[in-house]
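Dear colleague,

Following up on yesterday's call, I've attached the two folding results inline so they're easy to grep. Please treat them as preliminary; we haven't cross-checked anything against experimental data yet. The first protein's sequence and structure tokens come first.
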Amino acid sequence: MLNPIAGEIFCIDKPLEMTSFLAVKKVRNLLCRKLGVRRMHVGHAGTLDPLATGVLIICTGRKTKQIDTLQAGVKEYTAWIRLGETTPSFDMETPVDATYPWQHITREQIEAVLSKQFTGTIEQTPPAFSACKVDGKPAYKLARKGRDVNIQPKTLVIDEIEVLECGLPAEPTLVVRVVCSKGTYIRALARDIGEALGSGAHLYGLRRTRVGNIDVNNCEQLDSLLERLATEDYVPEQQALSELLEQERIANRERAAAEKARRQSSHDKITTQRHDNV
């Protein structure tokens, strides 16, 4: 039986063009209907842009306390990059605003740039079209109003970055695999790679293939998850709350016993020291 109040973790392959918030909302609404409750804690461990697909971890109930730990894990992406063009959002959410030469770029240049400039600890300025806070407001809300957005660079780590496919010299396209730390914006990485190659670039596809030890091949499709949740049996609300209360009592007794043992150990050490000094 599912126990969303005590906490469940669902790993989905987020659909294209759906926001992470909407995916969470769909799960929350269904669970609330099934349990007959008005509210329930449901959240995700790391936003995926609407134009990205892949691993999205959804936590419910007390398992939402694990969100910080889950989203701190190393992430892996496959990114599709088009050279020679930029967009304000660094992906296809906004139209192309400038074009640049790309015919001078070779695969060898790309691999050298990725190795020298985009491996290890780097500085990255997040996109204006992002959830980073500026004066207490998400940057994307300001950017969509045409306002200038000043976001400070952040330090992050690129563990691995490799070229999977290269369309050059026929097409200015590139597919790369990126293994990186929390907080990395792959859109901004595409922008910076384009600049480092003496051109411009933006994402035309993105897929998060891993978060920590959670692989996209082991994730459910959102529709399949919703169908499963609609037919699963659930621990009733009152039973779930009673079980949570009992778990908290057990945890409190264990903490009290550990603290008592610590104090007793400290007392025994002091007593031994006094005896040795006599």
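Below is the second protein, in the same order (sequence, then structure):
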Amino acid sequence: MAIGKKKSSSNEFESKVYSKKMTPGKVVIYILLLFWLFINIFPIYWMFTFSLKSNEEIFGANVAGLPNEWLWSNYSRAMNTGSMGVYFLNSVIVAVVTILITLIAALMATYAITRFKWKGSKPMNSFFMLGLTIPIHASIVPIYVILINLKLTNSLTALIVPYSAFSLAMAILICTGFMIEIPYELDESASIDGCNRWGIFFKIICPLMKPAVSTVGIYTFLQCWNELMFANIFNSKEEYKTLPVGIQGLSGAYTTDWGPIGAALAVATFPMLFVYIFLSRRIQDSFIAGAVKG
């Protein structure tokens, strides 16, 4: 019996080792994955090397290779030309304030819709979801008229308010999927312990909504950081322009030095990549949790 057990255990070990060996199917899959990785990484590599080249290298002499001369001065020229530092600061302010407003409004609206029992909860949720059906750029004219009447053009508020409004529907949709699954027994237990509505919201609900908060924050950040149309139309003064508008203004009417433009594009792009890299795990966890809950 002992000999039989040894043989069976050795056979299991051999089968496990054999299963880990490379098969032709696995080789093909790995090659395809490496090719897909190259396709996704190459634009980032190209933009970074593009930002360190001169016009001669960009247009023909060295299009895809590493720079023959690493022109780090392109970054200083980009930041010193056209007030790029001010544009970057404006983009950061707009993004941070928009995220905060969207998160606060979405969490409170979702809390009222999902945790309170009142007749208008479902119609109100449907009303918020109508925001998903409205293209953001289809409302430029009415928003522009409203901002002019309120004398809010040429200010950061002219961007923060529309960005927050158009991010709210998706934020409520994401938060609703999570908040519905939080047991009502937690609210009842907290209420018995003396918590009022605000205490339940801040001490019980908000800490459990961290995955949804991360997802909404990144979604809102990407939406307002890259937006060009509103920023170009609603603000004409230099001190209120954001990065996309500032980069657009670097292109001259007759001649253009493309190295600093590439540096400005890198400055505008890499913060988004870093934000996603550091928070991507939380986003994946939120989507997995939402799928399990659904």
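For the second protein, one point worth flagging: DSSP finds 14 helices and no strands in the chain.

Best wishes,
A.L.
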